[in-house]
């Protein structure tokens, strides 16, 4: 947003009023009516609600988590497949030829005889498992894997949506910073004009003009840098929304997040009750226990019914045809495995202990994450109060010093320093206002409450 430079230098009162309005317009987030939140825009604008929906429809991480569910759902069926019938076939063909050369009695010429033997064999074997102890723990592991995959999908959806909010607010924040820097450039241009005018009438030395010019160029450089960062943030959001790098869109200020922060303990309790990553970490222990059960079951007896039929045909000195049919019950029981059973069990027990430790680490990590988010919200709230007062003071200070400089009672150095202070305080306030909105949403994310309705709709049935 640019402010008319002519009005800014007309009088101290007018300058102060214009600066105050500019600050309020620049740094206070506007809101859109809730009824417009999900409606498509006709002017290339994107609301935060639309950004969420676009991400749910196109994000690769969410799709990957969905296919992880599809794969995990096959694990119980894989366990049950061990009890399915198995039919194996085998066919073989073996041919041999024998040549024999001899000298017939009373003959001077040798004679050769050849004998050819051919054997064809066709065999089919049907096996039907009756009892396999591995099936039960393997099936349990598969069901746990499917449950964990569902939870991980929900967690991915929530984390991805929060990433959209972060990127969205980064663009809004940087747009606000660019607007503030542009206003600072305008003020620096006005200051240079004033210094030049006073120099032309001999009221000040050339150094005032040089200082004003240096301040203007510094403001220009800051503006250029902020525009570059804005372009980067726009590209990041475009990639998140899968727009192919297209940044030809504008963002709508979303409504402010509710500020209903309560005591820390209830917040932490909600996080433990709702966090999907916490639940997945707990399920991992049960999965390892099921894996240990598989190891134990592998050394139990297996029972299966077997039937086979074999067709054999031999052609040689004669023709022989045979058909053998057999059926029976097979019981397999491993007694000695060279110590592999003990090694597998020790490995499984160590894995369970390690997973329990990882669960404790996850619990500590969540506690730290929730506490940091909780502190950040409270800190940002108090910081905004201080920064608002700082902006008001810096605005008044700059207005007064500029009027004093014009009257010849203040130096150009004082004015340039006041202008930098004003720019810094306004930039900090604008950044903190948007960071505060992100912090509130991060608090909701840490409790597993962020965009709960949208996350519920995205669940895989």
Structure overview:
With 461 residues, this protein is α+β, with helices and mostly antiparallel strands. It has one domain: Outer membrane efflux proteins (OEP), CATH 1.20.1600. 64% of the residues lie in helices and 15% in strands. The protein has 11 helices and 6 strands. The strands form 2 sheets. Strands 2-3-5-6 form a 4-stranded antiparallel beta sheet, with no helix packed on it. A two-stranded parallel ribbon has the order 1-4. Helix 3 packs across helix 5 (135-200), helix 4 packs antiparallel against helix 5 and helix 5 runs antiparallel to helix 6. The radius of gyration is 40 Å and the shape is elongated. Residues 1-43 have low confidence and may be disordered.
Summarize the structure.
The protein has 461 residues and is α+β, with helices and mostly antiparallel strands.
Name the descriptors.
11 helices; Outer membrane efflux proteins (OEP); disordered N terminus; two-stranded parallel ribbon; alpha+beta; four-stranded antiparallel β-sheet; 461 residues
Written as H for each helix and E for each strand, in order along the chain, the element string is HHEHHEEHHEHHEEHHH
CATH structural class:
Mainly Alpha
**Count of domain modules:** 1
Largest sheet: 4 strands, antiparallel
CATH architecture: Up-down Bundle
Helix fraction by DSSP (H/I, runs of at least 4)? 55-70%
Shape: elongated
Continuous helix count:
11
